[in-house]
Amino acid sequence: MSTKRVETAEKYVGRPIDRLDGAAKTTGEARFAAEHRFPGLAHAALVHAAIPRGRVIAVDDAAARAVPGVIDVLTHENAPAMKPARKPSMMDISSMVSGTSVNYLATDEVHWNGQPMAVVVAETPEAARYAASLVRLTYQELPARVDFAAEEPNAVPQKSSMIFEAKADKGDAIAALAAAPASVDLRFTTPPHSHNAIEPHATIAVWDGDRLTVHEGSQGLAWMRKHLSFRFGVPEQGIRMLSPFVGGGFGGKGSVWAGTLLAVLAARATGRPVRLALTREGVYHTVGGRTPSTQRVALGARADGAMTALVHTSVSRTGRVGGGPESITSASRHLYAAENIHLRQNIVELDLLPNTFMRAPGESIGTFGLESAVDELAWELGMDPIELRRRNEPERDPVSGVPFAHRMLREAYELGAERFGWSERVPEAGAMRDGRWLVGMGVATAYHPSMRMMAHVAVRLSADGGVVVRCGFHEMGMGAATAQAQIAADELGVPLEAVRVEYGDTDLPPGPIAGGSTQTASVAASLIDACAKLKRSVHALARRAPGSPLRGRRLEELTARDGGLHHAGGGETYAEILTRAGRDHLETETKAGTLGFMVRMLRDRRRYVKAASGAHFCEVRVDRDTGEVRVSRWLGVFDIGRVINAKTAASQLRGGIVMGIGLALTEETQIDHRTGRVVNASLADYHVPVHADVPHIDVHCLDDPDPTMPLGLVGVGEVGITGVGAAVANAVRHATGKRVLDLPITLDKLL
Amino acid sequence: MKPFAYVKLADVDAAVHAVAAGSGAKFLGGGTNLVDLMREGIEHPDTVVDVTGLPLDEVDELPGGGLRIGALVRNSALAADRRVRAGYPVLSQAILAGASAQLRNMATVGGNLLQRTRCRYFYDQAAACNKREPGAGCDALDGFTRSHAILGVSESCIAAHPSDMCVALAALDAVVEVRSVRGTRRIPLADFHLLPGDTPQVETALEADELITAVELPAAPFAARSRYRKVRDRASYAFALVSVAAALEVRDGAVAQVRLALGGVAAKPWRAHEAERLLLGGPATEEAFGRAADAELAAATVRPGNAFKVGLARATITATLRDLSTEEETA
């Protein structure tokens, strides 16, 4: 950090502190969005389209309106109009949080199977839902393209943007591949996935004239508020969004989806506060998920394992009405010192609910292809897969030649191999047995780029010694607020109990989006700045004060500890300084300018390649009769820079690995190839891992600060899931001799 | 959910009369399936008659051996019953392989028999389904068929029966006792569930006004050596892709007694009569088990999405019988 800092005696950063919101959540005291109550609260339910594309030519809502308690049935025939969504532009980031471009209830057009076409508002949720089931829509169907497998060959090259690069070339990888003494050339497929946060999306919208209050679990309050302001034509300052608790998001609560807009619209149309809590099925039909993909990964190497060619191409899909590219080949750009590299991403647009951010979009599935192929190359060469990776570990970023900000993959593998007992692995496939089980061990590399976003943070220091940190960031259960409290306590040298963190509210200074593993570092950078400013203000009060032990002292001589500023010969508490100065409190706010921030970020990207990374070690058991796969042991060794909270960081990584086990073995959003309808729209049929599918997961963090990041910390939300699919596939390959290229690795692929 | 009247009665005759009186009335047990179906608008009774207060929640020993299981015994209680665990372990294992602890605590034995298929095309009102709407067609035929049937299917319907418990009951020659205003009758479990044919909406031999009062297990000493093997897509809380309920007695290397039933492969718990016939008296070898499985599965009708079930069923049958036979040798 270039900012001049007062020395602090670190006490809390790094420790496994319990989550500050833990007690409220475990006792049920926490109120999630759908749990708030208002006088006159009405309840809304959606009517979903049953065709993939076409028009609604008739609405029969007579039976629905006859249900006792129904207040209104809103359709394109009678609903007040919203403004259409703006075209997504990097210049206005709030335009990027449009889940879809559809102007709900202002159009009779159906763009995907499950699109909300009507909203029923009633006195009870039961009446709303029953009435919604009675609304009859008559359609004129149009031809629709919904089958990714069939349409995938029609994909077109993805355009590169300021943030996402769609291709890379170094040398001539195609020619090098053909000439390579050893090579693999594999085609992978991955299915669509859904987030399945435990809290289904819910919105409560309350209008008071042109003022609007919205309760909703959100990962992007500031951008969503701006989006709502535009769509409903009211001033941003008149909208307050509250999101103190979010029951999981995983990217699914980072955009404005139909439920949010329609709750606000229904509240405006009926003049009532409206609660719209999606059914689980409703989440599948209205909130996008992860794109499916096809990938080709081809690797060429010399006999000693040195890679001569790395080819990774992908096809993903978006919706015709939104969605975006996912960085499927991103890890292939940074992981191996291949002499020649060829990366391409392609896109096909379909008549489906658009894709959206889902935990490590791109990297989660891209690393499945890449890291499976690297493992297969190791088999081809008869080489240990860790040794093959070690031999191809680059000194600088392979494509750009830019230095790594921090890179400890060699150390991660070395330590992991030791802790996991990798040396006990018999190299031959199918050689390890335990009764009816075939045992296999696999490794794969985890990788996720590291970025920062803007965050405005205010810190208030009161004469009673209390500290309040205020920032509209998001706590989705990952311990974000606890981490910031630890940082504030250390920066100011106060007890953790003295710090209160306010978040999840647009009345606070705007925070970053909770996405891309950026939130903790982004808030921390501004928080550290704000604390530094605050200490300067405190120092300014004390250094000329007669009688102060700090009188005449320079700031550089002082340490923030024991609730005040101290030097070797003495010191004073903040309370004493403020009281003497007759000040009730001091407050500072760090505001980042958009343009300057973007310029610095882009400049930084040209100077360093930054990432979180790690090594996954996986042991599986495969039933020799039935092909059932059980993950029996897991170790992840991660380089996430400095660890802020050992407990919550490990928990985040573990959660990523659990989600990755789902990606590897069970998860698939089944979309009917004829109708585009999500078929398994329930938690009984969409198989996330259950407890019995998840072994003890050992997580180890190298805990070495990244010198280019605030406090040396690197975001940890997404790296955990990357590489997991490949680690499982590679262990299955070792157990059975079978290379599974198509996720999920269900037992029929091993029979 | 369509509004409905709710009645809870404490007397079997009163409950039976209440349902007989109203054309749109249904019995409600634990509600673990019926309530879901009502929420989805697939079942829409005018009246539900809650039978959980009826005195049908005991497991009694029958004179001459066997057990009589009251229809309202909770699934978890039946699985934990010492007599079941010792005499019919296949039944206890089957129940514990199903659903979740919470659901098993609610679900009744009678209700379990009446579970409806979990075919997603049956549940989704936007899809065509002959079972939900006779004559509408079947979207499952060319859709996702991973969980669908391969035996006894028709062009009208390929839905699979979801119960684990019933597979064990099929292997154990259970008999279902039912009561209506017309009196009591007994239906062998083998005849209780029906194959789809052209009428997939008719799923059981039960009349609309009949109440299941008990399930009887005949004496079967060999069933003390029995097991249930369930193969599914995750370790718990998933329906069977294929399951096998088996009991085996081997004497001098030959099969002296065998009972075999399959789950996840048909619209009913599938008693493998053909395999049993081939096995009885023959050698208890893995090869013989495989041949018997092949014979049972020869009539399978598969779709691209469920073709793997033939091989999976063969492997699971063979492995289960192998494990039972090797257990016996070492016993």
Description:
Chain A is 26% helix and 24% strand. Chain A is built from 18 helices and 29 strands. In chain A, a hairpin with a 2-residue loop joins strand 11 and strand 12. Chain B is an alpha+beta fold. Helix content of chain B is 31%, strand content 20%. Chain B is built from 13 helices and twelve strands. In chain B, the strands form three sheets. A five-stranded antiparallel beta sheet of chain B has the order 4-5-8-6-7. A four-stranded antiparallel beta sheet of chain B has the order 9-10-11-12, sandwiched between helices. Classes of the chains: A alpha+beta (751), B alpha+beta (331).
Spatial shape of chain B: globular
Estimated helix fraction of chain B: 25-40%
> Which strand-content bin applies to the residues of chain B?
15-25%
The termini of chain A sit apart by 56 Å
Question: Largest interface: which pair?
Answer: A-B, 37 and 31 residues
Major sheet of chain A, described briefly?
7 strands, mixed
Annotation, overall tally of beta strands of chain B: 12
Question: Rg of chain B from C-alpha positions?
Answer: 20 Å
Q: SS-based structural class of chain B?
A: alpha+beta
Strand order of the largest sheet of chain A: 4-6-2-14-11-12-13
Q: Report the structural category of chain A.
A: alpha+beta
Rg measurement of chain A, Å: 27 Å
**Low-confidence segments of chain A:** none
Beta content of chain A comes to 15-25%
Strand order of the largest sheet of chain B: 4-5-8-6-7
Task: Please give a handful of descriptors for the protein shown.
heterodimer; A: about 750 residues; alpha+beta; 7-stranded mixed sheet; 6-stranded mixed sheet; 18 helices; 29 strands; about 25% helix; globular; B: about 325 residues; 5-stranded antiparallel sheet; 13 helices; about 20% strand
